[in-house]
Prior knowledge:
Blueprint: H1 2-59, E1 66-67, E2 90-91, H2 92-95, H3 103-110, E3 158-161, H4 177-186, E4 210-214, E5 229-230, H5 273-276, E6 277-278, E7 289-290, E8 298-299, E9 309-314, E10 319-323, H6 350-356, H7 367-370, E11 372-375
Parallel strand pairs: 3-6, 5-7
Antiparallel strand pairs: 1-2, 3-4, 4-9, 7-8, 9-10, 10-11
Amino acid sequence: xxxxxxxSSSAITLLVCVLVLLSLGAMSMPGARELASADRCRSNxxxxxxxxxxxxxxxxAMPMGVGGTTGExxxxxxxxxxxxxxxxxxxxxxxxxxxxxxxxxxxxxxxVGPDGFPAMGPVPSYDPSEYTxxxxxxxxxxxxxxxxxxxxxxxxxxMMNYGDAVDSxxxxxxxxxxxxxxxxxxxxxxxxxxxxxxxRDILDxxxxxxxxxxxxxxxxxxxxGAMVVRGVDDLIASPGNALKTATSAHKPYRSGQxxxxxxxxxxxxxxxxxxxxxxxxxxPNGPSATLLQDPESGCLSASSxxxxxxxxxxxxxxxxxxxxxxxxxxxNARSISPLFxxxxxxSPYGVWGAMGxxxxxxxxxxxxxxxxxxxxxx
Length: 378
């Protein structure tokens, strides 16, 4: 009888151990999946970094933040029909296609289409059922941690660094005298609309300057951190006002906010500010906002579904994981702008702001002080 009891007790103990192990395994699976997704995301960014460097080797410059065609009419004074050119709104990511082993897609984009579409395509918002290249989904443009990648098409998880300005930072600059000056004043990032930037222009050092980061994709998310608030008072004078609009990155904005209908990263070829850029003004996974009538002036925050931060591709090609708690200086400091006679000054937005500027001579502290981690390129 004792033997039967001992055998039964051992079996129960074994069963309990098995159940505990299975439970622990089930608990660890989401974490393991996220680690794998984060690794793939970093790998995507490293490939994009390699593509930018190869592009620079080929053309002695990086792709413009946004460029493209204007239908032989000078932008922006006269605009072609939406199907006759891309109106100078084509993201620099499009130029990277042949350097990302997407030569077939590039060939389709670069030649006149059989349906009369021009080389380099119509406007990026054109109906993708007619111009089908806009609906193509490139895995290398997607972070697998974002659930939106399973719900829609033609999206992009990665954004270009436009620097630490707010005033007109996303403007599609033309060749007017006013714009030639303004682009130098506020175009402090690695990418500037309608402007060629070379590695030699990154005076702060390639390893100290952010080039690409992530965004939560704004598709079917309503008021999440993937979306952008339209209309924040005194945003240029005090970007910190945007912090009052949101509860957290993955939760809705506070009531009473007007949200732009287009979400971040929702169209891979789109070069317009809302969908193509991030700025280093507000912290990673902070809110994003623009002025009420000006979608080209604002703060667009890097964001991700990774825990506690975002991946950032530096101009050197290295990938860093930047904490949400990185030093952001004084969010209520005036933005760099000709309005305030502070053009050319160091970024007022701490280490994060310094990482966003290419030539402001800021010093980046050690990784521990700055709260980021650099991953190997191997």
